[in-house]
Amino acid sequence: MSEKAVAKGLTREFVQRLSGEKGEPRWMREHRLRCLAAFRKLPMPRFGPSLAELNLAELEYYARPVAPVERWEDLPEELRHTFQALGLPEAEQRALAGLGAQVDSEVVYRSILEEVRAQGVVFTSMDKAVREYPWVQDYFMKAIPPEDNKFAALHGAVWSGGTFIWVPRGVEVAIPLQAYYRMQTEAVGQFEHTLIVAEPGSSVHYVEGCSAPRYSRMALHSGMVEIFAKEGSRVRFTTIQNWSKNVYNLNNKRALASAGAAVDWVSGSLGSKVTMLYPTTVLLGEGARTENLSFAFAQEGQWLDGGARALHRAPGTTSRLVSRSVVQGNAKAVFRGTVYVAPDARGAKAHVECSTLLLTPDARTETIPTLNAENDDVELGHEATVGRVSQEALFYLMSRGLSEAEAMTLIVNGFVSPILKEIPVEYTVELRRILEMSLAGGTG
């Protein structure tokens, strides 16, 4: 493939060529073909937002506009400036144990602190892991099989790039690892794969950020995250997504938590034309727990369809799913919170909470909770609130000298603060800035 390798039309020949040129082992090539076959058989999602404008035949399934480099200084100047504007070099120097950056289909830069490497932590690209660690086969798409849904199968056939993290037994990675994903090519599909394996008693926090410039044609982001949290381990996965409004963001994220393990998901979603994202934790071992904290800001023309799932399959497991949504203009935010408690999961506890703030008369929201317990020894709770900005509160703040936009920003910041306080401070500052800019342009 050339530096700007392009393949329109998803064929068996393309998948085999992609695998061959990446130098993948035979098992991965066979896996890709299995996924391709599943993709052709599976239907499009039968719920949620319309995907009628998503023309899969027009996508470029692989694009590499930038060659990988080992030093930050060797990235093209334009891309370096883009990443600098996002604060990546500074974040790497001050607050991160490791940093990876991907443009379109390939990782272009990756680093890791020497003291973290000395702990035995593996932080590398998914492509490299597939080639160098044969045992990755035991985990790759084992949490989310290709038959799960059409976009999981599509991802498995054409995935490229992403992150592999392995944390040895008992090792605590004290500061976050981070990756940043940038879509730089028009009408491209980005399909990075993230796989985290936390051995017993270990802990790690991984942060990913996503963005794309605005083009006239649609693009697709269909990444996948698989987390294997073994006995007594702790994994936190933080996502900040600010795709442009021509991107369809259709992801699959799932964690398997063994006995005593803890998996936390924290997400902030501000961009994309359509998002469909429902991080899932399967609580497989006694005492496992999960928490999912999400924040969505839907603006004019967007449909952000998100939520979370907790599947309790062992006794004494706990889950907490909390969502805050802000909707402005002719936009829609949907929260789907699902809790399932198996017959053997006695003593399980789960709480689902969804709150939405509507900023304009035509803003729309929907809450779709599903609580299903197959034994009586459980504690399940659900609460949902929907409200509009209080005109009294707005008037009060404006009477104290604030502009309408400033008053609105203050109210919204207070509403979403329970989620934002869980996000690393560098991202919180950026999220608040984006909120301020958006609200300033949408009021008056």
What does this structure look like?
Mean pLDDT is 84; it is low at 1-7 and 88-98. Strands 3, 4, 6, 7, 9, 10, 12, 13, 15, 16, 18, 20 and 22 form a 13-stranded mixed sheet that branches. The protein has a ten-stranded mixed sheet with strand order 2-1-5-8-11-14-17-19-21-23. 50% of the residues are buried. A hairpin with a 2-residue loop joins strand 1 and strand 2 (106-112). It has 444 residues and is of the alpha/beta class. The chain folds into three domains: 1-269, no CATH class; 278-388, no CATH class; 395-444, no CATH class. It has helices at residues 12-21, 26-41, 77-85, 88-95, 114-118, 126-132, 150-158, 391-399, 404-420, 425-442, and strands at residues 98-103, 106-112, 122-125, 162-167, 177-182, 189-190, 193-198, 203-211, 219-221, 224-229, 234-242, 247-250, 252-257, 262-269, 274-277, 280-283, 289-298, 303-312, 318-327, 332-341, 348-358, 364-373, 378-388. The protein has ten helices and 23 strands. Helix content is 24%, strand content 36%. It is globular and about 70 Å long.
Secondary structure elements and their pairing?
Elements: H1 12-21, H2 26-41, H3 77-85, H4 88-95, E1 98-103, E2 106-112, H5 114-118, E3 122-125, H6 126-132, H7 150-158, E4 162-167, E5 177-182, E6 189-190, E7 193-198, E8 203-211, E9 219-221, E10 224-229, E11 234-242, E12 247-250, E13 252-257, E14 262-269, E15 274-277, E16 280-283, E17 289-298, E18 303-312, E19 318-327, E20 332-341, E21 348-358, E22 364-373, E23 378-388, H8 391-399, H9 404-420, H10 425-442
Parallel strand pairs: 1-5, 4-7, 5-8, 6-9, 7-10, 8-11, 9-12, 10-13, 11-14, 12-15, 13-16, 14-17, 15-18, 16-18, 17-19, 18-20, 19-21, 20-22, 21-23
Antiparallel strand pairs: 1-2, 3-4
